[in-house]
Amine oxidase (Gossypium tomentosum), 534 residues
Amino acid sequence: MAHSLKIFCCFFFFFLFSTLSIIPLSHQLEQHPLDSLTPNEFIRVQAIVNQSHPSTINDITFQYIGLNEPDKQALISWLQNHRPTPITAPPPRQAFVIARINHQTHELVVDLSYDNIVSDHIHHGFGYPLFTFQEQNRASQLVFNHAPFLAALNKRGLKVEEVICETFALGWFGETKQNGRVVKVMCYYLDGTVNLYMRPIEAITVTVDLEAMKITHFRDRLVVPVPKAAGTDYIESEQKAPFGPELKGITVVQPDGPSFIIDGSRVRWANWDFHLTLDARVGPIVSLASIYDTEKQEFRRVMYRGFVSELFVPYMDLTEEWYYRTFFDAGEYGYGLCAVPLEPLRDCPANAVYMGAFVAAQNGMPIEMPNVFCIFERNAGDVMWRHTETMIPPDLITEVRPDMSLVVRMVSTVGNYDYINDWEFKQIGSIKVTVGLTGLLEVRGSKYTHKDQIDEEVYGTLLAENTLGAYHDHFISYHLDLDVDGESNSFVKSKLETVKVTDQTSPRKSYWKVVSETAKTESDAKIKLGPDSA
């Protein structure tokens, strides 16, 4: 049976504006079925959900609102019959909503064509929806009116006005009973630096029930020295000499303007054509990526849909205040919600063009997110292909094709880490996905000032006095629905196998051959990274 190849890829880490005109969505002839919700659609969705639960309107919080992805086959059929003139109607435009209503999680589908709710399902299983920024901020502020917490700060000689707090998900470790929507609150100390993550206030546990929005547990286990502020500030103007050699500037100039065209959410460059949107949970979504075949005079499908499925960040620390730090940066905090405005000439080169997006606030109203994407052509001086032929004397034939690519970039700052997410489209027909991991370390305060003092498991490396760098991982999983020349795709694993020459057919003692295996299930397609040749 024909099927689309869906791959869940996992990456593991140890540790002047362009004048290109962008055609606004409102100026397009029509809305694309995969376009993100517009501000007006967010407002309509909020009104429809509120009207459906009039008696609980004050108890409704919108944890997520996004496009309810249309049926794939319906969309492909519409696309095939759409050009040059539309023959069939586009798939129904719907929104998917996750809302907390009367302390229950509702999963709703809202039909925007008829302004009604077509599905309202109450989730009774494990897990909870995304946190909103509003509820995280409220929870982290509760401690400043909690007398035991203020007493704990006073005991440590800390000034309350220099304290910053944030919330942490509890994690799940096989418990059969759910803990409810509960978070832990951890605090940091500024007083001489903006690098709050280098100055944790350790051994204080504050538990907050998000539904009741109150502190349910407090414990001050012991006093641990707060690491020093000296040398931790990263603000450029605060850096002290000596500095390294100053580099001369490099300017990217395209005198004829960029080679790409942005039409609403559609991007066209060289032989590539794709659709780009932002989702609050997963961040950038690249859809309908196709490449133009100049010989066949048609676009050939490459990828139906691609996005970050999850970012899992487990810390390897078993202490009471750290064991639960096993973060799902997309599922708990929102990879797209945490997208930040990109800094021109810093995050992106001078030839970049910027795109904004909208997400929903806790009350369901739209929030504008400017400059969350930058799109630019990259010429890093690399070579796409070359050859020098010396075997046809007296001629010396040299042909070189410089490498040019198109980059779509988003930066998501989830707490202390900044993820630089690039989708790079190459002229050779490949798509390269990279995630640059930068930002700040989340350290744990410690009584130790020198590594020779350590006589126990501390789950990290002593970086400075009273400062432990906690061991942790970053697992980044991708959802890739590949439609290479259509849906009849298979995933083939090829391994190199050594063959011994046991007869006298060759002086060689061995050679290798390729052994291929077609995966029948997703489990078959698993690849164990290691030294094996593949």
